[in-house]
Amino acid sequence: MARSALLNVMTQAATKAGRSLTRDFGEVQNLQVSMKGPADYVSAADRKAEEIVFQELSRARPEWGFLMEERGAVEGRDPEHRWIVDPLDGTTNFLHGIPQFAVSIALERAGEIVAGVVFNPATDEMYTAERGGGAFSNDRRLRVAARSTLTEALIGCGAPFLGHGDHARFLYEVRNVMGGSSGIRRFGAASLDLVAVAAGRFDGFWERGLKPWDCAAGSIIVREAGGIVTDFAGGKFDHIPGDIACGNELIHKALLAELKRADDAIRMTQTSAA
Ligand code: IPD
Ligand code: CA
Ligand code: CA
Ligand code: CA
C-alpha cells in the first residue's frame, strides 16, 4: 500500500531516529545518562534521536512548529501545524538493555491530532495512521481485538514510579482490573502499549498522567484501528492531564467501570479515615 506524502515524511524521520537508537542500544556506558527528576532519565541516545527527527521534519516542512520531550516547544511560522515528538519512548527500558522502546511522532493540525507514527526499531514494526485513512503496521491493516468481556481480556497499563503519580490509587486500579480480567501487563513504553491495542494484542490499556508526546501518535493509531480512546470518565481524551483509557467499545466500557470502582473504593477509605 502506498503511503501519503505526509506519512512518508514521518516514517522516514522515525526510521532514521530508530537507526540511531539501534546503534546506541547496549552502549549505556557511552550515553551520558542524567536525571531530569526522580527516576526520570535522559541520555545522549534520546537527544541524538530527537535531533534527527527535528532536522528531518524541519527540512520537509520548514514552517511547522514542534513540541518535543527533550527540547520542549519550538514555534513555527505556521500556527496551524505542530509536530509532537517523543524521540525515545521507553528510556528506562532502553538504558536497562530491554528492547521495548519506540520513536513516536504525531502531527497536530488546528489543535487536533491528524496523523501518527510509532516505530519499534527492535522489531522493525512501523505503525501509522492518518485521520480517516485507517491504521497500519508496515502494510498490514490494523483492527482492535474483538473480545467482548473483560474476563477474557489482556489489559496493558502504565504504573507510577518513584516520585511520580498516585501510587495508592494505582494499587486499587490494579487490584480491580487484575481481579476482573485475564491478566495485566506493564511493558514500559506507552506508545507501544497503545499500538498493541490497535494491533489487537492488548484488549485495553490505561495510564494516568501521560504527556502529549507519549500518546499523541498512539491514540490516533488506536482510533483508526476502531478503538475508543477517552479519559477515565469516558469524556474526550485530553493531553492534559493525560489520563487515557482505551479498547474496543465493550472492553473500554468494562475497563472504565473497574477504574470507577477503584475510584469509589479509594474515596471510601479517604472518607472513613477523615
Ligand atoms: C515513559 C514511558 C512509560 C510511561 C511513562 C513515560 P519516556 O516515557 O512511556 O511507559 O509509563 O509515564 O514517561 O520517559 O520513556 O519517554
Ligand atoms: Ca522521558
Ligand atoms: Ca515517553
Ligand atoms: Ca522519551
UniProtKB/TrEMBL annotation:
Protein residues bound to Mg(2+): 69, 86, 88-89, 214
GO molecular function, one term: metal ion binding
CDD domains reported for this sequence: IMPase
Signal sequence coordinates: none
Catalytic activity entry: a myo-inositol phosphate + H2O = myo-inositol + phosphate
One Pfam family linked to the record: Inositol_P
Single GO BP term: inositol metabolic process
Cofactor(s), names only, from the UniProt record: Mg(2+)
PROSITE patterns: IMP_1 (PS00629), IMP_2 (PS00630)
EC top class named in words: hydrolase
Keywords on record: Hydrolase, Magnesium, Metal-binding
Protein EC: 3.1.3.25
Family: Belongs to the inositol monophosphatase superfamily.
PANTHER family associated with the record: INOSITOL MONOPHOSPHATASE (PTHR20854), INOSITOL-1-MONOPHOSPHATASE-RELATED (PTHR20854:SF4)
Protein name (database record): Inositol-1-monophosphatase
